[in-house]
Design brief:
0% strand; 87% helix; mainly alpha; rod-shaped; single chain; 3 helices
Length: 98
């Protein structure tokens, strides 16, 4: 009977090792999933940053062209129709929308 206990103990040790191995792998997977989520978040932030930079540059070009052509009044009329948020309208000294 002592031999059977030893076999059971050996099996239990193997089982414990396998469980420990699995727990480590699950922890590794969890870390990698977090890393992937962080990288995706960083990529999205960079994409937004690049998009915002494009908008700024396009806006600078439009303002430059409008100032040169003397069409600032036309641009202001278009902005008055386009902008609905009060904070956006304030930037251009436009009255609140009714």
């Amino acid at each position: 009977m002592g031999e059977k206990l030893t076999s059971i103990q050996k099996i239990q040790q193997q089982l414990d090792r396998e469980k420990a191995f699995l727990a480590k792998k699950e922890k590794d997977i969890s870390k990698r999933k977090k890393r992937i989520a962080d990288l995706e978040k960083n990529a999205a932030a960079e994409k937004r940053k690049k998009g915002n930079r494009k908008k700024i540059l396009v806006g600078a070009l439009v303002l430059h062209e409008v100032e040169i052509s003397g069409e600032m009044d036309e641009l202001m009329k278009r902005l008055d129709k386009f902008l609905v948020r009060e904070n956006d309208r304030i930037v251009f000294d436009l009255p609140p929308k009714k």
